[in-house]
Specification:
- There is one protein chain.
- The chain has a four-stranded antiparallel beta sheet.
- The longest helix is centred in the first third of the chain and has 11 residues.
- The chain is globular.
- Strand 8 and strand 9 form a beta hairpin.
- The protein has a single domain, classed as paralog of FGE (formylglycine-generating enzyme), CATH 3.90.1580.
- With 374 residues, the protein is of the alpha+beta class.
- 14% of the residues lie in helices and 15% in strands.
Length: 374
């Protein structure tokens, strides 16, 4: 696993560097400025209020049909075409899993995350360009990717300008060994891989959402809107998500109230009562990532509860394809000059053993599964 543009030995070694590979597709590309249309489309579902028989901290998303993806010519190709999808009812965590919640899992199970395990060169070399030399042993120690803003403008096509492979970075020390999550129990857990998220979900009696479930829930009952709250990014000048303001990636001015990661639930929920469905942290989904997944689904007419493609395909990867999984929602690093991935239709792919400083997750429980337990 390697990001082809990164040339320095330390950066070439890391199987975590692909955490930002797909973002290369968005370099210097602005998403469209025009609205996709504000009229409701299809049978807009309603989130059911929780009661004493509801799973704690979750919202029920009623079954319904919606338009997934977009036909906006200025969106990324992997978001097109718009197509109809129907999903069955499910419960979704109202916010991303927090440090406090993840700690309970680790303390109960003794689980060790991907970022806390040494890099296995024998496994790594299967997924890098042939002939890639083995890095020095001291560089194959546990660690992860940390956002390190440069002091000057950099080429937005080369993400080594703002990501640093940092030994000792993990969910407990998200910015490196000297950092801590003390006092940040309410922040989304980060530096977690897809494998870590699945392990947590299994322990909690849940699973990761499909991409269709995630996008359906993110739209909050609004159809064909550009954002989770409507077509205007800052209605009446109000920021409704934790994103990057200022000059990316040099200076985040924090106009939305935060420079970097924000506590979960810092911004208003969407129409279904779900927080952080745009910005703050990317969310892992269960689907394999395929750049043409939407085109495949569009052939079905109305896709019923799609679980995603059976294999991965990412045309931006020049080396051996690893089984990438979908992430949705964007993060605090998304900026209009770079990706605008806080839009519901935006999507990226990451290898399952990849974590970074802006990727988290939330879980779901199918309503039928929950009913069967009662």
């Amino acid at each position: 696993m390697i990001f082809d543009r990164m040339r320095r030995p330390m950066q070439r070694l890391s199987h975590f560097l692909v955490a930002v590979t797909l973002a290369a597709m968005t370099a210097a590309v602005r998403a469209g400025d025009g609205p996709q249309g504000s009229a409701p489309d299809g049978d807009a579902p309603a989130s059911t209020s929780a009661d004493e028989d509801s799973p704690a901290g979750m919202k029920l998303i009623a079954a319904g049909e919606f338009v997934m993806g977009t036909d906006d010519a200025n969106a990324m190709p992997n978001e097109r075409p718009a197509h109809r999808v129907r999903v069955e009812a499910f419960w979704m965590d109202e916010a991303p899993v927090t440090n406090a919640e993840f700690r309970k899992f680790v303390e109960a199970t003794g689980y060790v995350t991907t970022a806390e395990k040494p890099v296995d060169w024998e496994e790594l070399k299967k997924q890098v360009a042939p002939g890639t030399p083995k890095p020095a042993d001291e560089l194959l120690k546990p660690g992860s990717l940390v956002f390190t803003p440069p002091a000057h403008a950099v080429d937005l096509r080369d993400m080594s300008g703002w990501w640093t492979w940092t030994i000792g970075a993990n969910w407990r020390h998200p910015q490196g060994p000297q950092s801590t999550i003390e006092g940040r129990d309410d922040h989304p857990v980060i530096q977690v891989s897809w494998d870590d998220a699945c392990a947590y979900a299994k322990w909690a009696g849940k699973r990761l959402p499909t991409e269709a479930e995630w996008e359906f829930a993110a739209r909050g009952g609004l159809h064909r809107m550009r954002f989770a709250w409507g077509d205007e990014f800052t209605p009446n000048g109000r920021h409704l998500a934790n994103t990057y303001q200022g000059r990316f990636p040099v200076n985040d001015t924090g106009e939305d109230g935060f420079k970097g990661l924000a506590p979960a639930k810092s911004f208003p929920p969407n129409g279904y009562g779900l927080y952080d469905m745009a910005g703050n942290v990317w969310n892992w989904c269960s689907d394999f990532y395929h750049a043409d997944a939407h085109a495949q689904l569009a052939k079905q007419g109305v896709a019923i509860d799609p679980a995603g493609p059976t294999e991965t395909f990412n045309p931006t990867r020049a080396v051996v394809q690893s089984p990438e999984r979908v992430v949705k929602g964007g993060s605090f690093l998304c900026h209009v000059s770079y990706c605008e991935s806080y839009r519901p239709s935006a999507r990226r792919g990451l290898p399952p053993d990849t974590g970074s400083g802006h990727v988290g997750f939330r879980c779901v429980i199918p309503a039928s599964q929950w009913r069967a337990k009662r």
